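Lines hold sequence, tokenised fold; shown next:
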Amino acid sequence: MTCNASRPLRICFPIADRAREVGGSHISAMTLIQNLDRRRFDPKVILIGETGRVDWLARNAGQSPERILPDLSGNPSFLGSVRIFREAVRLLSSGNYDIVHTNEGHMHALWGSAARLCGVAHVWHHRANPDARGLRFLAPLTANQVISVSRFAAPSRSGYSAARRCTVIHSPFDLAIADTNRTDGRRRALAELALADEAMLVGFFGHFSDRKRPLKFIETIAAVRQADPEIPIHGLMFGEEHDRGLQHQMEEAIERLGLQGRVHLMGFRKRGATWLAGCDVLLVPAIDEPFGRTLIEAMLVDTPIVAAASGGNVEAIDDGRTGLLATPDDPEALARALLSLLHDPALAQSIRSNAKEHALASFGIETHVRGVEAIYDRINVARMAR
């Protein structure tokens, strides 16, 4: 189906640029943009704020992003939000765009409202908690279509809801990382930390925020050592502070629990797949995670997973087959699951094999892109029928 008899469908992607933080939503959006069928779709990235990492991602995706309001990004003030809304109305009222595709918080609210005012279709790509106020109260008014990254994150079916306009489409993943060299990642970690070959490496990947539960990760490593004092376990925490003061709490917990030299704060690292592949297990204590990218990336690089039975984790993992689930916020339960993998190589290998097969079959870029393109086509059919 062609989007228009004369030209491709023009899609605006407004994104707040950030100097430091780039999340899964940015990676997924740029992957989509890069792989859209250019015969039918013409995407354009609009960046808000000063030049940061999102600009780099956009240019790597083949975009030459337009930038507006270089002094605004992140969570703007009320006056800042008014300025963004006015700029959105200015751009959308020009007639240059057919669809606005938003991917995060303030962009949903401000650009979705502007799209409604200007008669431009709005795709609300929801990657957060289903109880988010915007999804509950604003999406039913502004969104022509909602894309949810998981069933967990989708709007609930109630009298006032966008649920009938919602489609679940899992995030896209680069299946090529399945060829990542596990030996290289492990060698790097052991050498940097001066650890013996028999060390068992358990990874945490993600920014340090309360939802990710980094403190529960530290407590789980302590619980493993209490259950088996001889086990040579080391927790490697890759990420940067998101919630102010949390890293200090983490450092205090490491000291209080006697985990100096056992839990290592690794910071942000490039080539994340290599470090992930170097871990013996990925431990995901996060709760209410819509659909964590690291879970699928771990499956692709043959790293078995222990995760809290919460949010999208439950959809991503078939307990006992593609990973292990444990009671959320329970370090002892997480520790038992972790020990079962570390003590049972046959179980770990079975999970690796099943998880990789599942990820390769289910989470490729083409599957994601074709699903989103079908949403655009649906919008265009309705638009042409008017």
The two ends are 18 Å apart (CA to CA).
